[in-house]
Amino acid sequence: MRITERLLLARKLTAKRLMLASSSLQAGTEESWTRVMALKLVHRFPQLSHFSIQRISVGPARLLSTSRQSLCVACLCTSAGRCIRRQGCLRLQSNCGIRSLTTTIVREPSFVASSSVGLHRDSVPRFQLTLLHRPTAAEEQGFQQRLGICSSSRQVFKLLHSVEIISDTMAAAALHRVAEVEQEDNALRDPTVLEKDTVRALCFQLEQDSARLTDGGLVSALLACTRLYLDPWSTLMVRLVSESQTRLDRGQMSVDELCTLGQAMLAIEGPGGVMLEQVMEEIQRQKPAQWSLAELVAVYKLLQGILGEDGKYRDLLNAMHTHTMTVTSRMDPAAVSGLLSALVTLNQTQAMPLVISLCKQAVRHVPYFTDEELTDVLGALMHFGHSDHYFVKAMEKYVPTMAFTSHPETVSKVMQFFGRRNILSPTVFDAVAESFVYRADDYSSSQVAQQIVAFGKLGYLPPNAGQMFGKVETILRTRFSHFQPRTLLNLLHACILVKRFPVNFVSKVFSSYFLQQLQEEDTIIERSVLAQLTQIYITVKLECPSYEGPRLLPKYRVKSFLMSGRSLETPVDPHLYNSVKAGLVDLLGDRQYFGSKVLTPYCYTLDVEIKLDEEGCVLPASHVDEVYKRIALCIDGQKRFTTNKRQLLGKEAIKQRHLRLLGYEVVQIPYYEFEKLQNKSSVVDYLHQKLFPHTYRLSW
Q: Is 71 left (phi over 0), alpha (psi -120 to 50) or beta?
C-alpha cells in the first residue's frame, strides 16, 4: 500500500475514533443543557465574565475514573468552591452521575486562545482559560528546575498548586515528571495516581484545548500521556493524535517536535506506524548539518527505537555521524551516554571514529554521569571493543568514591568492563572487593557472578580475598537455587582460576540434575561449557585430593581446551613463535629435538615440548621411552597478559600451575623479554639461559 493511501486510512480511523468518542459525550443531556444555558447567560451579560468559568475535572475516562458531584448553574457561573445559593446542591447531592473526563464543554466566546491555563488554589484543582500571556522564559525555566527536584507525584502536585499560570509545555512537563517518578518496570508503581484531581484536571484541560496548544506543547503532552499508559482510544488521546496529524500535514514542525511526536507514535502504533513513517520522511528532508546538538540527540534516540530494517536510514545516519563529530566537545553527560547507547542499538560499527571521540568526551564526565548513564557508556565501550587510557585513569579516581553507594548494576558493569577489556586496576578491584563484603546481599546472583568473574579472568586476588570469597561461599550456600546454571558455572570456574576451590559445591555441579539443567538451556551443551566443567574436574583432581564426591562423566569432558571462540587457552602468537623456533633450531642443532603444539593427556596444548633423558641430554621429539624430564616452553605473547600490566591472565596462570603439578618444568618466554633481543646470537644465549641455566652451551 502506498504511503498516501495509508495516510488516508489512518485519518479515516482517527475520524472514526472521534465519532465514537463524541457519541460517548452525549450522556447527561440535561446537565449539558444546563451548562450551555449558563454560558449563554454569561454571554448575554458580559459583566459576568469577570467571575470566569471554572473547568471542573469530572467523571472517569477509561484510565482516569472517579465519581464527582455536579454543580448547579449558580456554581458553574462563579469561582466558589461550593454552591453559593445554599449549603450544597440538594437536588444534585443525591445524583452523583458518572461522566467521561473527556467531556466537551462549550466555551465562552469572550475568552481568547492563549495556550496557557490558570490553576486555582482550591482543594480540588480547577483550570480556566485566561487572557494572560504565556509565562516568561525565566518563569518556565524556574518551573522546570523546581519540577526536576520533585521526587514524588505529590511534590509535583504541590508545585502545580503553587503557581498562578502554567503554559501548555509546563503542563506537559508536569505529566512527564509524574510518569518519571511513578514508572517502574514498564508500568506505573501506583496506577491510582491517574485518579488524582490534579492529573484529571490537567488532562481535561489539554483535551479541551488541543486545537489551541502550541506544536511543542501538543506533542509533548501526547508523549506524556503514552508514558502514563493512557488508553490510546480515550477521547484525550484521540484528540491529541488527530491534532498532531493536522500539524504534521502542515510541515512546519521543528526537528525536535518531530522527534517527540515520533516517540509518542512509536509507543502507540509501534515501529511500523503510518504517522511515524511520515515523521521520518519529514526528518529526512532536513539537513543534519544545520541541526542543533539537542536535535541530533533527539533523532538518534528516535532512530534507536524504530530502526528495524538494516541500512534503511544509512545515508541519514552517515550524515549525522559526520556532523556529530564536530560537536562532541559540547556534549553533556546525558548526550554522550545517549548517543553511545543509540550507536550500540543501531550497531554502527563503521562509526568507530565517532565512538572514539565520544569516549574522549566521556573522560570529562565520568564523575558526573548518573548510574544509568555510566552503565550505558561502559556497555557501549565493551560492545565496540574500545578503551581509552585516560578513561581508565578517570575511572580509577571515581570508582573508589562510588563502589559503596552506586546502583549494584553499575558496580557490576564496571567490573565487567575491566574484565572484558583485560584491564587490571588494583585500585578499582580493591575498592570493589571491599564494597562487595558489605553489599553482596544487595546484589542479584548474576551481579555477584559478574564481579567475581572479573577477578578470575585477570587472575587477581585483592587484599581482603579471604573475606570476599567467604562472602561468596555464604551466598552460594544460602542462594544456590537462585543461580542460573550457566551463571553458577561461570562463578565457580572463576574461583578455581585464582586458587579458590569450591569443593562444597562441585558435587552439585557434577550431578546429573545440574547437567540436565545445562542441557535444557541449550539443546546441545556448548564446547566452551564442557571445557569449563572439564577444567573444574581437573582442578579438583590435581589440587583437591580430599574430594570424594561424584566425578564428571567422560561424555561431558573435552580433549582439548584450545578451541575457537571462548577458549580456555590463548593461541600462541605466530610471529613470536617463529622467532623462538628459529632460535631453538640454532640452540639444539636440529628441528627434530623439540615438538610444537603438543596436546597433553590433560587437555592443555604445549607451545613447545622438549624431552630430556636421565643425564639431561635432549631427546628427539618422537622419542617415547626413557623420557626422564619434560620441559614445557610457554611462549607468552601480549594477549596472554593483562593489557596494562605484565600479569598473566587467569586462564594462563592456571595452565602453568597445572602443568607443574603434572610434572612438567615450565619455562616462560614472555614477549617483553624476547622483544629486547637484537640478533641471533642474543636469542640463542637467552634461550640457553632459560632452558639450561646450569649447563655449558656447545657450539654446533
A: beta
- Type of residue numbered 100: S
The angle that helices 235-250 and 3-24 make with each other, rounded to 10 degrees, is 140
Please check whether residue 594 is in contact with residue 608, taking contact to mean a CB–CB distance below 8 angstroms.
yes
Cβ neighbours of 421 (radius 10 Å): 18
Please indicate whether residue 168 or residue 642 has the higher confidence score (pLDDT).
Answer: 642
CA 168, CA 170: separation in Å to the nearest integer? 5
**Rounded to whole angstroms, how far apart are CA atoms 125 and 158?**
11
Q: Are 460 and 647 in contact, with CB atoms under 8 Å apart? A: yes
Instruction: Locate 513 and state its grid cell.
Output: 540434575
The pLDDT, as a whole number, for residue 134 is 73
Lowest mean pLDDT among 185-189, 218-222, 361-365, 439-443: 185-189
445 in Cβ contact with 484 (< 8 Å): yes
Any bridge partners for residue 669, and if so which? Answer: 635
Cβ-Cβ contacts under 8 Å for 46 (sequence gap 6 or more):
110
pLDDT by residue (tens digit) across 679-697? 999 999 999 999 988 776 5
660, 634 Cβ separation under 8 angstroms: no
Spatial separation of the C-alpha atoms in residues 700 and 689, rounded to whole Å: 17
d(CA 205, CA 128): 8
Report the C-alpha dihedral over residues 213, 215, 218, 220, rounded to 10 degrees.
Answer: -140
Dihedral angle over CA of 134, 137, 140, 146, nearest 10: -160
Q: What are the φ and ψ backbone dihedral angles of 129, each rounded to 5 degrees?
A: -70, 150
Strands (DSSP E) contained in 33-139 are 55-56, 116-119, 126-129
171 close to 217: Cβ distance less than 8 angstroms: yes
> Which strands sit side by side in the sheet containing 126-129, from one edge to the other?
55-56, 126-129, 116-119, 165-167
List, for residues 157-181, the tens digit of each pLDDT value. Answer: 999 888 878 888 899 999 999 999 9
